[in-house]
Design a protein that fits this description.
Elements (H helix, E strand, L loop, with lengths): L2 E3 H9 L3 H9 L3 E3 L2 E2 L6 E3 L5 E3 L2 E2 L7 E6 L29 E2 L8 E7 L2 H8 L7 E7 L5 H9 L12 E4 L6 E6 L6 H8 L4 E9 L2 E2 L9 E3 L2 H10 L4
Parallel strand pairs: 9-13
Antiparallel strand pairs: 1-4, 2-3, 2-5, 5-6, 7-9, 7-15, 8-9, 10-12, 10-13, 11-12, 13-14
This protein binds uracil (URA).
Length: 241
């Protein structure tokens, strides 16, 4: 049995704020099992009760899961008075939801950002306990070398912490383009790991979070919902299915 407050259920199903949901409920527009219910605090069973708003049956609400191709120059934060944040790119219907990013990207970094209102999923993705792998494409000011890959693999002393073993694959070419896989997400981690090897990161793009890959057709700044398969794989990966 999954009991939820009626205002929360209506807000999530209709993608409106709780305040708007309460207004609709108090106005008599919402019914539960055929009876008008004007009490926002009423609990409903998401699996059993039939909730209707203005005569239409509401689908049982599910967490929102969005993939964004974050451009460089955008903050991984909710609204900020002066700087652009991911909220400035959200389609209108998601604008009122309490979305957060499952793993931040620096302002100058780009690529895969997973946005959701599922707090437990965010926790499991960012918690070191779950060791979720993040794959980054990196361009450096100088070529990486085998010694760097070995240092990444054995863990780097970064002053306030030692990084967990990470993978550095040097891509074909002049050695300045690499793939990096880390299981942690400390502040500026990839940049600091390269800095410890005497290299500066010029471009940082996240390509993957666990099972979720950045959609190559998603243009910079675009946002889309996850497919059913992407959702299922993420929940399976985090043990929440
Ligand atoms: N590592 C960094 O240095 N920056 C990011 O944004 C992500 C990982």
């Amino acid at each position: 049995m999954a009991l939820e407050r009626l205002d929360k259920y209506v807000a999530q199903s209709c993608l409106i704020t709780r305040k708007e949901a309460r207004e609709r409920i108090r106005a008599g527009q919402v019914s539960v099992n055929g009876q008008v219910c004007r009490r926002p605090e009423q609990h409903v069973d998401a699996g059993r009760d039939e909730v209707c708003a203005s005569g239409a049956v509401l689908e049982s609400p599910r967490p929102v899961l969005l993939m964004m191709n974050k451009p460089a120059g955008v903050l991984t934060a909710s609204r900020d008075g002066r700087e652009r944040t991911f909220c400035d790119y959200l389609p209108e219907k998601y604008a009122n939801l309490p979305l957060s990013a499952a793993g931040r990207l620096d302002k100058d970094a780009e690529g895969l950002l997973l946005l959701t209102d599922d707090g437990e999923l965010v926790h499991r993705i960012i918690s070191p306990r779950w060791k979720t792998e993040k794959l980054y494409y990196v361009e450096l000011d100088r070529p990486a070398c085998r010694a760097d890959a070995e240092a990444f693999a054995s863990g780097l002393d970064l002053g306030d912490f030692t990084s967990q073993p990470a993978r550095l694959d040097i891509l074909p070419g002049d050695g300045r383009a690499c793939h990096v896989v880390i299981c942690e997400g400390k502040f500026h981690q990839v940049k600091r790991m390269f800095a410890a090897c005497g290299k500066k990161v010029l471009l940082l793009r996240r390509l993957k979070i666990g099972t979720l890959e950045l959609d190559k057709t998603l243009k910079s700044g675009e946002i889309r919902q996850l497919s059913e398969q992407e959702r299922a794989l993420l929940y399976e990966m985090t043990g929440l299915l």
